[in-house]
């Protein structure tokens, strides 16, 4: 069997983007070019790789195998490039990091600045997304390293480092409850509080804890922006629930305080650095992981 390996990229992008049109926009080519390359690929392989007549592109079994072959080939090339970079002393390379918004902080910036100062020619691509998307990017080798809150147990994900980060009630220092040593979830029923939207991992954990206590959370405000939640907490009577890692700057400045919540499930959550199970990270990503651990260990442990 003879086929052009470069044609597999078209199929791969269609699978990633969900349609030929979306793939064509990403690749900056006409949709007809994507369709033609996939048709030629099917002729070369002697099988169909896409199911026809669907709104969203879906791979056939043969298409799944072809995409896996392409992904594995990318992995082998990355490993070779990593070894060559190691020989050259990590002078070049690229790293893709995916993370939840709560990790976008001075702590991360300090780790990145230190790394870029040591390795100025290594490119870093940072993608901010929800937990499920971050984990998907890591599983599909679209990101070398993921950073998520309280990573669920998944067969293809390994947690490289976990930092205990309880979910706490967050409010202004002038709030009536700011002097309390702890609060309960039941206390929230009489408060003006804001929470992340239900697709956030933080909200999933909160809802499960409330369910265990036979409570129903009814926030006055929900948002997919942590900035909006923090701004709400800075108002005289506003409260939200976040881990300290998401508000380190505000805590140090005294703009916000965090109070433990009396809940075992909310006290055992963590901030996690993850990679795909079995993936050999390239040298640049391995080195960046060391920088992350060093800065996070200093601040969070």
UniProtKB/TrEMBL annotation:
Keywords in UniProt for this one?
A: DNA-binding, Transcription, Transcription regulation
A GO cellular component term found in this entry reads:
cytosol
Q: Quote the protein name from its UniProt record.
A: LysR family transcriptional regulator
GO molecular function annotation: DNA binding; DNA-binding transcription factor activity
Pfam families named in the record: HTH_1 (PF00126), LysR_substrate (PF03466)
Record-annotated HTH lysR-type domain positions = 1-60
**Phylogenetic lineage:** Bacteria, Pseudomonadati, Pseudomonadota, Alphaproteobacteria, Emcibacterales
Give the family this protein belongs to, as stated in its UniProt record: Belongs to the LysR transcriptional regulatory family.
What top-level branch of life does the organism fall under?
Bacteria
């Amino acid at each position: 069997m003879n086929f052009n390996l470069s044609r597999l990229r078209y199929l791969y992008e269609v699978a990633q983007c969900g349609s030929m049109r979306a793939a064509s926009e990403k690749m900056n080519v006409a949709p007809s070019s994507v369709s033609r390359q996939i048709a030629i690929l099917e002729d070369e392989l002697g099988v169909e790789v896409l199911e026809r007549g669907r709104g969203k592109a879906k791979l056939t079994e043969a298409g799944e195998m072809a995409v896996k072959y392409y992904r594995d080939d990318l992995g082998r090339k990355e490993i070779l490039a990593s070894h060559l970079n190691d020989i050259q002393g990590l002078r070049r390379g690229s790293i893709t990091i995916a993370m939840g918004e709560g990790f976008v902080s001075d702590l991360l910036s300090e780790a990145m600045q230190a790394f870029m100062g040591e390795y100025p020619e290594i490119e870093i691509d940072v993608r901010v997304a929800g937990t499920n998307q971050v984990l998907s990017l890591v599983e599909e080798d679209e990101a070398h390293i993921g950073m998520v809150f309280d990573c669920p147990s998944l067969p293809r994900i390994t947690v490289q480092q976990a930092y205990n980060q309880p979910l706490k009630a967050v409010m202004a220092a002038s709030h009536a409850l700011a002097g309390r040593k702890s609060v309960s979830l039941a206390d929230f029923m009489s408060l003006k509080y804001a929470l992340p939207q239900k697709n956030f991992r933080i909200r999933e954990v909160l809802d499960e804890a409330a369910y265990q206590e036979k409570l129903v959370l009814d926030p006055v405000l929900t948002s997919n922006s942590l900035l909006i939640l923090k701004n709400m907490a800075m108002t005289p009577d506003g409260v939200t629930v976040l881990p300290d890692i998401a508000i380190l700057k505000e805590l140090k400045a005294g703009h916000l305080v965090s109070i433990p919540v009396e809940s075992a499930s909310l006290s055992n959550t963590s901030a996690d650095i993850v990679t795909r199970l079995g993936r050999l990270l390239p040298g640049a990503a391995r080195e960046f992981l060391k920088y992350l651990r060093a800065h996070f260990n200093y601040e969070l442990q």
